[in-house]
Amino acid sequence: MTSSATPRGTPRAASRATSRPTLRPTPEERAGHRLDLWAAAAGALLVVAAAVIGTVIERANGSLHVNWPPLYASWSPHLGPGTPAAVAVAVLAIVHGPPLAARLPWRRLVLLGWAGALAWTGALALIDGWRTGIAGRLTTAYEYLTVIHRFDHLGPALRDFTHHILNNAPDHWPAHVAGHPPAAVLTFVGLDRIGLGGGGWAGIWCLTVGTSAVAAVLIAVRALAGEPLARRAAPFLVLAPSAVWVGTSADGYFAAVAAWSLALLALAATRRTTHPAAAALASGLLLGLTCYLSYGLTLIALIAAAVLWLTRTVRPLPFLAAGVAAVAVAFTLAGFSWWEGYLLLVERYYQGAAAVRPYAYWVWGNLACTVLITGPATVAALRRTLAAAPTAMRGLRPSAGSLRDPADRLVVLVLAALLALLVADLSGMSKAETERIWLPFAVWLPAACALLPAARRRAWLTAQAMLALLLNHLLYTGW
Q1: Would you give the distance in Å from CA 309 to the centre of its chain?
Q2: Cα–Cα distances in Å, from 1 out to 7, 105, 216, 247?
């Protein structure tokens, strides 16, 4: 496959840009590009408004509880050991990413996408240095590693887990342990048990597993919308600004587990694997694990439903349900009640900063965070996604049969991820810090960049990389 190949179903303007890259753009293409720029500008304006209004609110009464609204970050211009590497990875991805994505054998592309994301994310983290950027991130007072010693006896620790969630409970858990089901902290307990204890190994785990989400999204997009669109999305998935947070929080790891669950479900539903039942069962196990890593990630079920709807099949559903049930039964028998934990979490949530953080600000300030973690190219691509949504949704009607246009299928997949994100936003349970909390939804949105015209691809990739580099060099992010 060459870079001039046009995927069936690509929007008309993008198709013409791919087939005639040396010719002057048509009026239709120029109009589409202007609208893309307006969308990116609107996203930038949203960020500026959130920063200005948020700063005014925070200085007036401190109710936002963030130092650099809308991000949980502090102003701290700096360079670091990762700076040259980050710039080099960005240049290589911008210059060589699109042609490599077009011509590499598929399996090599998936592995290179993962390796590229790992290099990009690791380099960004090392801008803050090894200790600050990686090894020390999960050792702060809010994090998982501070309570490893309390899990020497797993049975009693799981049975008593919910007894330590509330702030007024004896020996209450740190914020992140209390805010998640026990699978999150058990991950790091497991690493410690096999001799990989401490912040360094925990950081490497989150970096390595978290960046594999790029490979999972590529596999899912290929299964559902075709290989050409997956190839076009690949460089944007690698250079996503969300890498700033994937490399510094456990939420990147959660995002990868969720992404692999959906990728396996897509393979099972499309039967692009020799063992669809096993893939569906593995998908269910990972989906169950996802729900026991973070309460809010039950919303991943919306994307899973879109996968089944796109493929017009329920064949994987029994195996998927069996996998989810197996995880739920295991934790329940061990003494942890998911529902009890969730109800106590809601109470704990409003014992802290959430009690004063204003919903009226964060319900749109969170969306400004999303602009920052997905980048201007994704905002422009979402403009194209929403423009194509009416046609794609009409094709979802039962009387319409299956969606035949690959671009429409990609539109529906991205819309499902966007819907999950918006439901999380409206719930009020994500007031602030969504730059990391929403990573499991946000990793899917840059796939929409496959809809951008080929002639503009490198310019948009440059904008993505510049945003990430500026964020990591000008701010010290809290997670």
Answers
A1: 22
A2: 11, 9, 21, 33
Report CA Rg, the chain: 22
How far apart are alpha carbons 279 and 327 in whole angstroms? 16
Q: Which residues are CB-neighbours of 149 under 8 A, at least 6 positions away? A: none
For residue 141, how many other CB atoms are within 10 A of its CB? 8
Q: Residue 71 phi/psi, 5° resolution? A: -95, 150
Flag whether pLDDT at 2 surpasses 80. Answer: no
Q: What is the pLDDT of residues 199-242, one digit of tens each?
A: 999 999 999 999 999 999 999 999 999 999 999 999 999 999 99
DSSP string, 157-203: HHHTGGGG-STTSTTPPPHHHHTS-THHHHHHHHHHHTT--SHHHHH
SS3 content of the chain, % helix, strand, coil (to 5): 75, 0, 25
Report which DSSP code applies to 68: B
- φ and ψ at 351, to 5 degrees? -85, -15
Neighbours of 62 (CB within 10 A): 11
Whether 443 and 418 have beta carbons less than 8 Å apart is answered as no
